Amino acid sequence: MGRNESETVVRTGSGLTVSKIFTYIRMMKLWHLLPILAMVAIGCSAGNETAKTPEGEKPSTTQEFKVALITPGKVNDSGWNALAYDGLQAIKSDMSATVDNQEAAGPKAQEAMRAYAQKGYNLVFGHGYEYNEPGAEIAADFPDTVFVSSSGGKTAKNAGAFRFYLEQGFYLAGVMAAKMSKTGKIGSVAVIDVPSIASTIKAYEAGAKAANPKIVIIPPVFFGNEGDIAGAKKATESVLAQGADFIIHQANSAAQGVFDACKERGANAFGSNSDQNENPSGAVVASATIIAKPAFLALAKQVQEKKYEGAVSLFGMEQDAIDFVINPTFTAKVPPELVKELEQMKADIKSGKLVVPKAEF
């Protein structure tokens, strides 16, 4: 390597080449400075290198989008919790997001929310009315995280709720039950008496009364514990003992207890939240269903685009987020005119001609 070539390889900040400095050291016999010179040479060389992106590629500016889901029960319940998990997976696949989920209730719910926020999650879903207040309470502590619950009325700049208009599906179940009941009595069971659950049951009762003013509605029975299949079955048996032959539930992961009781008594059950028509009990005649994907994706995109503003959003049949599905194996037992009527009612709901009652909370 020639002298000029060497001098162009590394230069110090003052413009002196390394070769000139070596010459100066030899002349002055300052050999103890050689280690220092070596360090300077390495540093200068590194400082003159510019990081380059491979040709044809642009530097990445995309930040990781992280979304969490907290549920009151297990996400394999084929019901309320499972549908939320489906919504979370839609965010993962459609938006290439990093996702996580856990089961947490009571005081542990807010702890879980805080933990996700501290880990830099952009959006935390709390799947139930009970998550609304905890999320709104801690929102100010984590301005970079959005807390959204499915049901509830409390909002903040970065906290709110979205509501599935499940009352629409429950209303149609009430119509079907009232028109097909042989005993003239129908009923319902639920895990707890909270506004979101109570509103769906009242819609079921309203649909029944609209279809048959003489129908007898047995008051709902609440069994109290998430996942308590035995408790759900006992609650259902108490309603059946009063003469009901159609029952709808808000039992979440304990729904199997409802279906088992109906099968043993020869009664009919409605599935709720998820399509439970294929339950092996054979007792499910139709399901009032939630399709979570449209709501979860819409909210996640608002958060990712930094357009989210604390509010309560409503998702119903108009957004293809709610449906009422008759079990294909039961269709032959449903009068054709009733099937036609139910389909027309769905169309009227979508168009706004029929407005299903719901509680405001």
Description:
The chain is an alpha/beta fold. It has 3 domains: 1-32, no CATH class; 66-164 and 293-317, Rossmann fold (3-Layer(aba) Sandwich), CATH 3.40.50.2300; 167-290 and 330-351, Rossmann fold (3-Layer(aba) Sandwich). 41% of the residues lie in helices and 18% in strands. It is built from 12 helices and 13 strands. The chain has helices at 3-9, 18-28, 34-47, 80-95, 107-118, 132-138, 167-180, 195-211, 229-240, 255-265, 293-304, 336-351, and strands at 66-71, 98-103, 123-126, 146-150, 159-164, 185-190, 216-217, 221-222, 246-250, 268-273, 284-290, 312-315, 322-326. Strands 6, 7, 8, 9, 10, 11 and 13 form a 7-stranded mixed beta sheet that branches. Strands 2-1-3-4-5-12 form a 6-stranded parallel beta sheet, with helices on both faces. The longest helix has 17 residues, at 195-211. The model is unreliable at 1-15 and 36-61 (pLDDT under 50).
Helix and strand element order: HHHEHEHEHEEHEHEEHEHEEHEEH
Biggest beta sheet attributes: 7 strands, mixed
**Overall number of strands:** 13
The proportion of residues forming helix, as a percent range, comes to: 40-55%
Structural class: alpha/beta
List the helices and strands and how they pair.
Elements: H1 3-9, H2 18-28, H3 34-47, E1 66-71, H4 80-95, E2 98-103, H5 107-118, E3 123-126, H6 132-138, E4 146-150, E5 159-164, H7 167-180, E6 185-190, H8 195-211, E7 216-217, E8 221-222, H9 229-240, E9 246-250, H10 255-265, E10 268-273, E11 284-290, H11 293-304, E12 312-315, E13 322-326, H12 336-351
Parallel strand pairs: 1-2, 1-3, 3-4, 4-5, 5-12, 6-7, 6-8, 6-9, 9-10, 10-11
Antiparallel strand pairs: 11-13
